[in-house]
């Protein structure tokens, strides 16, 4: 890819040096995808334009005019800026909307969230003793974790999460997947540690409106990444 100087005189080397190249490439790629799309209908555009003006602290027509003059843009350019995210989501919906259920089920393990208590020790005998104290109610999990746990969870009384179910160690994740909330497991050997774990809560992901938008936008980002790999955004 050869340097280009059509961005306020900046070359691709300049943009990379400033840490802006990836962002500029992404935005230009998105512009290419949305180039032929018409603006939303007036009733759809009006709230988008209002949101954009509020985000830029433009509270009067005079301020909007001054902003356009300062940036060398006209009203249509502002309308396109205001509706850009909306149009991008709509494009993603048209592209992957019919596949959302499949995408959701495929990604559900990483979307599900888990909260659990963890106590880890190098000493297996001490782990067994502490497990019995927790099981018999002689001491709380949090108290013993704060005193004895040898991992960073010590600072939070052993409480970990919420986090994606794919984030814990695979052996620990499998244990949590088959647990019921409140279930306490005897010490398990895991890569040189003895761990005591109790599932506190499993937050199963649901395909609501927010999740649908997240999945659609994730697919859109993957599409942009694939286009950028072709190195065609700035041309040869």
| CA-based shape | elongated
State the order of secondary-structure elements, H for helix, E for strand: HHHHHHEHHEHEEH
- How would a crystallographer describe the biggest sheet? 4 strands, antiparallel
Tally of structural domains: 2
Overview of this protein structure:
By secondary structure, the protein is of the alpha+beta class. The chain has two domains: 12-100 and 211-229, no CATH class; 113-203, Chitinase A, domain 3 (Roll). Helices cover 54% and strands 14% of the residues. A four-stranded antiparallel beta sheet has the order 2-1-4-3, with helices on both faces. Helix 5 packs across helix 10 (209-229). It is elongated. The termini are close together. Residues 1-5 have low confidence and may be disordered.
Please provide a brief summary of the model.
This protein has 236 residues and is α+β, with helices and mostly antiparallel strands. Helix content is 54%, strand content 14%. It has helices at 12-17, 21-34, 42-55, 61-71, 75-96, 100-111, 124-135, 141-148, 170-177, 209-229, and strands spanning 113-121, 159-164, 184-190, 193-203.
